[in-house]
Amino acid sequence: MVEPLAKIRPVEVGDQRLVRFMVGKAEMEPIAIANRKLYANPLVLALWVGLSCILVQYMNWWPRSEHGLLGYLAPVPAFGALSIAFMFAIDWLNRWDFEDRSVHVLHRLDLVDIPAYYSRSPSSGFWILEYGDRFVGMIALDASLDAESDQTVDSGSLKKDRSGQVKMTKGTSKVATIRHFYVEEPYRRAGMQDDLLEHALKHAFTSDTRLESVRAADSPLRSYIGDSLRKHGFRLEKKAESVGALRWQNSIQILDRKRWSTPSTAQ
């Protein structure tokens, strides 16, 4: 049996539907992590137990030994019913920030025509990591003149040339942005995110000397990305928005050319 090969390749026109789906998946994944963190929060657990006991008392569902073994299960419906209510409430509280962000990201200019957008600068690129024919992860580094823009676009506002292609100015910014960075969960322990990040950084810094630094978003709800960024020398630049019911603090990390070119500083 031939062992599948892992490879990193540029995004092609035929990949765009898959890429957009994966971008949406990556933006929504933190909801599940945020929900799990709230499920295990001591205050939430205490409130769940307390309210469940109140419901048991109100319904007189305390264990009854005269009904045998099943009598001791009498309180279970109260705890089960409230656990469902808590899970629904937690998901509802966390969902809005991530849904809004997902919609925003999917309507940015870079996802209109992915290959064209990421060919605007020699330091830009959008790459997919595959294991055989299986999608493993992706990373998109934007070094164009719009690298620091977070604006969205709609189809009616796009300027196109006579051939129907969206008009995009070419050039390299001093500061690039990692717009998308995602690895499927089963491959994170193998460090596939490190391979993607190393590939993107090497391409960016060696393709155009005008590029001085690279920025990337970090979140406590995506710890594997933050760990990889710090491993490669990224440092905190500034705090960003807070998200979720517990207002988890996102941040912007930055890596300059000097730190990248000195491997010992990235450890």
Quick description:
The protein is of the alpha+beta class. The protein contains seven helices and seven strands; from the N terminus they run βααααβββαβαββα.
What layout of secondary structure does this protein have?
Blueprint: E1 6-10, H1 16-39, H2 42-59, H3 76-106, H4 114-117, E2 125-131, E3 134-142, E4 175-183, H5 192-207, E5 213-218, H6 223-231, E6 235-243, E7 248-256, H7 257-260
Parallel strand pairs: 4-5
Antiparallel strand pairs: 1-2, 2-3, 3-4, 5-7, 6-7
Given helix and strand content, the structural type is: alpha+beta
How many β-strand runs? 7
> Beta-strand level of the residues, as a percent range?
15-25%
Percent of residues in helices comes to 25-40%
Biggest sheet layout: 7 strands, mixed
Helical stretch count? 7
**Poorly predicted sequence stretches spanning 5 or more consecutive residues:** none
Question: What string, H for helix and E for strand, traces the elements in order?
Answer: EHHHHEEEHEHEEH
Strand order of the largest sheet: 1-2-3-4-5-7-6
Outline the structure in words.
It is elongated, with a radius of gyration of 24 Å. 40% of the residues lie in helices and 20% in strands. The protein has seven helices and seven strands; from the N terminus they run βααααβββαβαββα. By secondary structure, the protein is α+β, with helices and mostly antiparallel strands. A hairpin with a 4-residue loop joins β6 and β7. It has helices spanning 16-39, 42-59, 76-106, 114-117, 192-207, 223-231, 257-260, and strands at 6-10, 125-131, 134-142, 175-183, 213-218, 235-243, 248-256. The two termini are 38 Å apart. The model has no long low-confidence stretch (mean pLDDT 91). α1 packs antiparallel against α3 (76-106) and α2 crosses α3.
